[in-house]
Amino acid sequence: MTSLLRRLVEALALAGLTGAATLASVTAPAPTAPVTVGPIIITVPDGFVPAQTQKRQKSLITAWTRSVRDGSSKTLLQIEVIDSGKPENAEKQLHQALEVIGRRRSNFAASALAHIQLAGLPAVRASWNGSIGGYAVVGVVYTVTVKDRYVVRLLTQDLGNTPTDGIFAAMKAIESIGMS
User: Please, which pLDDT band fits residue 65 given cuts at 50, 70 and 90?
Assistant: First the structure.
């Protein structure tokens, strides 16, 4: 593992990013077949490898990473499914997600919310940037409420000031999700 990647993993872990400590330990390629994560189905982009899945009482977090050519950093694709047991407002959930992301990054700024559809359901999306441990980070986060009880947060992020090919591949996968 390169020293830059090791420092990023440490910075992400210090920042409280779920699963950050496992980013460097993944070696198997991700399947190109659709994967079911809670109530959604996603086709993980080529080159992304699975990271450890975490289950809690009412949530499930699954993630994949994709190394850049020189191995100096990784793009993250993460899905969090929260069983709220009741209908939730996707816009409110996105604001909460952005607050959490912003607390863990310095120089944080987010775009205006975009109202979109994911799998035919109303959803919201925002891009953001900031820094972790002195490294510029850019990302996009989405939220959608599924089956009147699941809040699904989908996130992609990478090092840098502008979106990378990995982020664009993750966004395409997110914007093509289906329902299980």
Answer: very high
Strand partners, 151: 82, 145
Any idea where the domains of the chain sit in the sequence? 3-179
Specify the residue for token string 């939730």: 88
Each residue's pLDDT tens digit, 105-141: 999 999 999 999 999 999 999 999 999 999 999 999 9
3-179 has CATH 3.40.1000.10 classification? yes
* Helix segments in the chain, DSSP class H: 3-14, 90-103, 165-174
DSSP string, 108-128: EEEPPPEEEEETTEEEEEEEE
d(CA 37, CA 152) in angstroms, rounded, equals 10
Q: Whose structure tokens read 């999700």?
A: 177
Contact residues for 81 (Cβ-Cβ < 8 A; gap 6+): 37, 38, 39, 40, 59, 60, 61, 150, 151, 152
